[in-house]
Amino acid sequence: MIEIKEDQIASLLKEAIEQLRTEDDRRLVSFTKKIATANPLQFFEAAKHIRENRAFWTSSSQMLWLTGVGTAFEMGADESRFEVIEAAWNKILNEAYIHNPYEVPGTGIVAIGGMSFDPENTQTELWKKFRPSQFRIPEFLLTKYDSSYYLTINVCVRKNDHAKQLAEELRLIEQKLLTERALPDHGLYIQDENEMDSDKWMDIVRRATEEIRKQNVEKIVLARELRLTFNRRADISPVLNNLLKTQPNSYIFAYEIGDDCFVGATPERLVKVEKNKLLSTCLAGTAPRGETKEEDMKISEALLNDEKNRQEHDFVVQMIKRGIKDYCTQVAIPDEPIVRPFKNLQHLYTPVTAQLKDGYTILDIVKQLHPTPALGGSPKEESLAFIREHELLDRGWYGAPIGWMDSSNNGEFAVAIRSALIQKNQASLFAGCGVVKDSDPQSEYEETKIKLLPMLTVLGG
Ligand SMILES: C=C(O[C@@H]1C=C(C(=O)O)C=C[C@H]1O)C(=O)O
Ligand SMILES: [Mg+2]
């Protein structure tokens, strides 16, 4: 392990501060060091009383863990969200002072964030803290990659800052964050459940199938919300801990804004880029798990051969293929999906691999792909128009890309499903399903019920 002397950060800060001309000038200083070990969840918990705005991420393979604490720099956008974020990101990277001797994805300057499902839909009070697009470069970032641990400290300095004093303040916070502590007890139970009348929701599904039969649109994904009230304010770290224990092969994420926290365990990758290697995933088509191994196999076999589910799935494959074609070379997509089992259900799954062409970024791909027909429908505009008019729901960040990107053009975004917005002693859970011409409203309703389970069970349901 390379030992880094604490005054190294002070001298980097000093150098950056001295470059600033006016009192309005700011410069991001980023300092990464390798540390022996640290538990990402305990780091998250330790931050609770130190800084607002925590973020948590583990990739589905658990190769990469990120815990972000505080905000060194924030990028947000309401309109032209991709362009605005990209411009802010490039500016900050161009001007930053970076000390990061490791070429490890997810270390150094990392922006963690997400976006709303549909910026054109009306935003309600529920999601008022979550902008159409928002990213944060955390002040403290713990990265676990493979079996190594890195701590990055990011600070936005100003002309009048005092380097030594600042370095000392950061050192004290770092110490507190790295002090191990027990996670609080869950102690959560549900006092009240509220959902839209199921008949009313199934009526909307019926209308969607009618629209599809009229050939105005081919697939429409419809979602619903379950609102819970608890006996007490929900702590986030035990929820994450339970998700880590119960939802293998999933992206486990949390994005906190003040008292609100968007949490989930999604199986769906939108896109990953590592050293120009691109991975995407087509995930659509669903069946329950069986009680026994034999039953499970039978259900899986039936899912693989079910025409309705194959159709749901194929819209996603075709769209992702079209979406990345101009941005990539060596696109490889198997002709047939496989069935991928998860804790509560199984999905049709087709992996996509490609090489990202030079000059493009992960944000370009996110912009091309979101929303895929796994969450919107097909064609995109027609299905979104139906959702806006009929769904009666503010999806907020549900169903939208959530993830991270670093200064070396690595990054990963998942589709934020199997998720909940937790607000003090309340939570809104979301689940949807792909409606195609042969959809049966009752079965679709049952499908959303299973999709609510991952979050419901860790929230005391
Ligand atoms: C919309 C959701 O999931 C999506 C819809 C699926 C389906 O209808 O078969 C399967 C996986 C996801 O693409 C959700 O979980 O809320
Ligand atoms: Mg489905």
From TrEMBL:
Its EC number is 5.4.4.2. Mg(2+) binds at E312, E447. Its cofactor is Mg(2+). It holds the Pfam family Chorismate_bind. Keywords: Isomerase, Magnesium, Menaquinone biosynthesis, Metal-binding. Residues 198-451 form the Chorismate-utilising enzyme C-terminal domain. The active site is at K219 (proton acceptor), E268 (proton donor). InterPro entries: ADC_synthase, Chorismate_C, IsoChor_synthase, MenF. Belongs to the isochorismate synthase family. This is Isochorismate synthase MenF. It comes from Oceanobacillus polygoni.
